[in-house]
């Protein structure tokens, strides 16, 4: 019986190579085949062994350069050919990383899967900006949502944000006007504080602050680009601009 390779679903964290887990770093340095997303920092890819084959399946808004089903098929095909594969993803593979879909297809084909978690984009960005997602005086509940989900206007977001709660929105830059409108329609106060964290844990990180009603203008006027997270809740008002500046310098 021919050897079947293993697919390692590896989280690359928010960007800074220092935030990789030890296991992720070891796999990068030993893997012969690495299939990676576009959000993986070049400094992390540079850790790969010299003879490693790097395959980019970078995602652009609304489409993949390689469709997801073809990515899944690539992982299965290589593993069935006897190759171990590192599937490297920004953040954590199981938080808006489509790692669940890839794991399901691999298991269905008889391919072993190992998940190596990474620091999620939400945790990494909040820590870099010194925003505590939970705080005894401000928030005991955290929710993660995708800002580009289908049927955004039909989603019931009531109760996801507000007093005592923190809402973290992934992939929400392009849909910021709809997000603000939706949350206010579902009862969130227009003056609820928020922060946008762009290029978290990288030298070019920016932390922008505002309120919910001003979210669309903030995105436009500051020319926010992905990767960026939107954090909404009272916890964002507990970190002053001086601390945010310190957090930015700390990543340099």
Q: Would you kindly provide a brief summary of this structure?
A:
By secondary structure, this protein is of the alpha/beta class.
H-E order: EHEHEEEHEHEHEEHEEHEH
Q: From the 3D structure, determine the CATH topology of the largest domain.
A: Methyltransferase, Cobalt-precorrin-4 Transmethylase, Domain 2
Provide the CATH superfamily of the largest domain.
Answer: Tetrapyrrole methylase, C-terminal domain
Q: Strand order of the main beta sheet, please?
A: 3-2-6-1-7
Tell me the Rg in angstroms.
19 Å
Mean pLDDT across residues: 89
CATH class of the largest domain: Alpha Beta
Tell me the number of helical segments per DSSP (H or I, 4 or more residues long).
8
What's the shape? Answer: elongated
Helix content: 25-40%
Task: Tell me what the structure shows.
The protein is an alpha/beta fold. It is built from 8 helices and 12 strands. The longest helix is centred in the N-terminal third of the chain and has 13 residues. It is elongated, with a radius of gyration of 19 Å. It starts with 6 loop residues before the first strand and ends with a helix. The relative contact order is 0.15. Its EC number is 2.1.1.107. This is uroporphyrinogen-III C-methyltransferase. Pfam families: TP_methylase. GO terms for molecular function: uroporphyrin-III C-methyltransferase activity.
